[in-house]
Specification:
homodimer, alpha/beta, two-stranded antiparallel sheet
Chain lengths: 292, 292
């Protein structure tokens, strides 16, 4: 099962983190970005950047999470770089979480699920959006069962405006609770018969580290659900506030480490991949207080 | 403004419909599908299918709505066919609604918005998912303002399970209402300063025709919002039940008309594009009871 492979790697490396591969040309080292004038050249620069990062990260982090928007933005050439990034990371033994946040009616969700968790994209996990209800998630769950893959369903996201809908109080089966808890309970139920030998379900939940009280409440409600926790670093959350059983994401904090102190001075622009490695090791150290 | 162009075309053609270009190899005429063994050949078949359909539809329907999942499923080659389909439809004067249902934190949403509503994809409208809140929609709205484009926000979707989250009763600013109404009011507010000369806002709403009572209630709440209404045809909704001010989508009912009576007998497989035209004209006739 994908979840067992992921949790074993997290435990084996003593590292509950995932590095977001969200490449932005404007923060890339100049020697890579300066010639990226066309979509095709931009895609080439992204792939070269990612490969150098993966070469420095594969032996210390369990997983990478490419955010597909930053590839899709460069047209089909960008999607090609996305697919090649996934393949390269897999070849190095990394678990790949495709951050795609898709969600649609069943026949459409099926097309997404079979491609992303199948041979076309080759992700181990995809993120999905629950707004359209359970029947929009079922095609993903079917593919998870058939191919030993996993998903992370958006429950409580890390952005400042996440509460606008997600925190609304709802009446769910006669009980009053915030919408995100109601979604959390649905995710728990959907994952109940997909629990692996490491104790977690193939059906995980996205819970931002920027909302520690909510994440801890969700941890109580869904003890067998691994949390994919974005928002670490830039948004100032402390490791001690993160719920146990989380895989914590950092994107810019790691892959753009060469743009800020102390990594900038230590590694320079040309040493961006070594800077990312150093930042990833510092993050690992910080997260050792978490139980996986 | 994109919304004015769309509404003018709807009124000019007397046709409040949009054709969903959701190509599936298994329902395509054999002469197109039979040689599509690789992703690249599948993408070529899709593009040829779409161009033939567009050639027969551009002068009778105002818009097309490619569902990106059915292209993304074929990897980067599929995305290339998507981009080429959008360009071909635009060249023929059709308005293009990219059914992408994206939704993410602001920096990521910005990457999606600038690409899909900008030169990379070239859509006139994109569909977006509101689960992450207003700050996830703002980058799209910013691009709508800068480039005279539009979006349709998922409010009440057409799938059977849509009610699971969307119908939950919430307390929104002290008033009890279903979640979808609360989202509807947000969409209304976000679109208030983007109303065009035809009376509708650049910020539209997706409201399935399968939920007529809810759509009519939303019509009262948001009189200046154009509704993108999926679910016509296959799911048995009648034209008389559809809210005024809707652009009604049909996908399989039109582009797969050659697989069912009476079009199958009249046009045969080779006449799939003429069959689609006949089905689109029948749909137009059915929808004449609607006010645009």
């Amino acid at each position: 099962m994908a979840i067992d492979e992921l949790v074993r790697r997290m435990r084996g490396l003593g590292n509950p983190s995932v590095i977001g591969l969200d490449p932005r040309l404007e923060s890339m080292p100049r020697h890579l970005a300066e010639n990226a004038k066309t979509l095709s050249e931009a895609a080439d620069a992204i792939l070269e950047f990612n490969k150098a990062l993966i070469d420095e990260l594969w032996d210390i982090v369990p997983a990478v999470k490419p955010q597909i928007a930053f590839y899709e933005a460069y047209g089909w050439q960008g999607i090609k770089a996305y697919i090649e990034t996934v393949a390269y990371a897999k070849k190095k033994g990394l678990i790949v979480i495709g951050d795609i946040k898709r969600g649609d009616i069943a026949s459409t969700a099926q097309a997404y699920a079979e491609a992303h968790l199948g041979p076309v994209y080759g992700e181990d996990f995809s993120t999905v959006n629950p707004y359209m209800g359970e029947d929009s998630l079922e095609p993903f769950i079917k593919v998870c069962k058939e191919r030993s893959k996993g998903i992370f369903v958006l429950v409580k996201t890390s952005n400042p405006g996440s509460g606008q809908l997600q925190d609304l109080m709802v009446l769910s089966n006669g009980v009053q609770m915030p919408l995100y808890e109601s979604v959390g309970l649905m995710v728990k139920r959907l994952g109940e018969d997909l629990i692996g030998e490491c104790g977690y379900s193939e059906i995980g939940a996205v819970t931002g580290v920027t909302h520690p009280a909510q994440a801890k409440r969700l941890r109580e409600l869904m003890p067998r659900t691994l949390f994919l926790a974005p928002g670490y670093g830039a948004q100032g959350a402390k490791a001690i506030d993160i719920a146990d059983g989380s895989i914590v994401n950092s994107s810019r904090g790691i892959i753009e480490a060469h743009t800020r102190s102390p990594y900038k001075e230590r590694f320079g622009e040309a040493g961006f991949a070594k800077a990312a490695r150093a930042a990833a090791l510092d993050m690992r150290e910080d997260l050792l207080c978490l139980r996986i």
